[in-house]
UniProtKB/TrEMBL annotation:
Metal-binding keyword on record: yes
Gene3D superfamilies: Ribonuclease E inhibitor RraA/RraA-like (3.50.30.40)
Top-rank taxon, per record: Bacteria
Pfam families, per the entry: RraA-like
Annotated positions binding Mg(2+): D127
Naturally occurring in which organism (per UniProt): Aliiruegeria lutimaris
GO molecular function, one term: metal ion binding
Listed name of the protein: Putative 4-hydroxy-4-methyl-2-oxoglutarate aldolase
Keywords: Magnesium, Metal-binding
Cofactor(s) listed in the protein's UniProt record: a divalent metal cation; Mg(2+)
InterPro entries: RraA/RraA-like, RraA/RraA-like_sf
Residue sites binding substrate per the record: G104, D105, G106, L107, R126
Length: 232
């Protein structure tokens, strides 16, 4: 006989990047971070800033605090409020269920009061006007008035699957109007090093474009090589 699971399971040790590691990602565009990961790390593009970012500026960079809710249930994400540290981004897996909301303005207001930097979920939310008034950056899959349950089971602090990526507590979440990117905890220093190189390259490219660049040198070189055939 299958035994009923605990209503909630909470990970005892919640790892977290250093303050220097966290700061290294502040202000970094998500595209730069993806490039620093050689094209990896982006969550599915159906997870977007609420309302497309038209009424609420959505940008955040902070350590993930995960909540595994399961479809139509929000108990775990409410439980996660107790474990938020200032600057955390709560990442809640709702099993990509779209039949009801994964939270509303009350929950998101409590996240902000607890010091969260943002909230990411693979489900719709509710109370759009209230969320805009709260002002916490939020990424979700849409809006619905439908209410969820709050009965569990759920888990806080453990790895979750969301947006075709695995996210663990302590991974870095970088999110802006383009979407959401996760940097695994074990790769933080590596990606930070690559990120500095990407920033430098992007600045140089922007300067060349501002100065009138029309065709990049590498395109000119390719077109002049024997790798390209011109035909009538």
């Amino acid at each position: 006989m299958i035994e009923a699971p605990p209503t909630l399971t909470i990970k005892k040790d919640l790892r977290r990047p250093t303050e220097a590691q966290i700061a290294a990602f502040h202000g970094a565009p998500t595209g730069f971070v993806v490039d620093a990961m050689f094209g990896g790390g982006a969550l599915s593009n159906n997870i977007q800033p609420i309302g497309g970012g038209r009424d609420l500026t959505c940008a955040a960079a902070g350590p993930a605090l995960t909540a595994e809710c399961g479809a139509a249930d929000v108990l775990a994400v409410f439980a996660s409020l107790k474990f938020i540290r200032p600057g955390d981004v709560i990442v809640s897996s709702f099993s990509a269920y779209s039949g009801c909301a994964a939270g509303g303005d009350g929950l998101i207001g409590m996240m902000k009061n607890s010091g969260a930097a943002g909230f990411v979920t693979d489900a719709p939310l509710r109370d759009y006007d209230g969320i805009v008034s709260v002002g916490l950056p939020v990424w979700c899959t849409g809006i619905t008035p439908a209410s969820p349950h709050m009965s569990g089971p759920g888990a806080v602090g453990f790895p979750i699957q969301i947006g075709a990526q695995e996210v663990e507590t302590g991974d870095m979440i970088i999110a802006d109007r383009d979407g959401v990117v996760v940097v695994p905890f074990e790769r933080l220093d590596e990606v930070i090093q690559h990120l500095e190189r990407i920033r430098s390259a992007e600045r140089a490219q922007d300067e060349r474009v501002a100065a009138g660049l029309q065709v990049p040198d590498w395109v000119e070189q390719l077109l002049a090589s024997d790798r390209v055939a011109f035909k009538e």
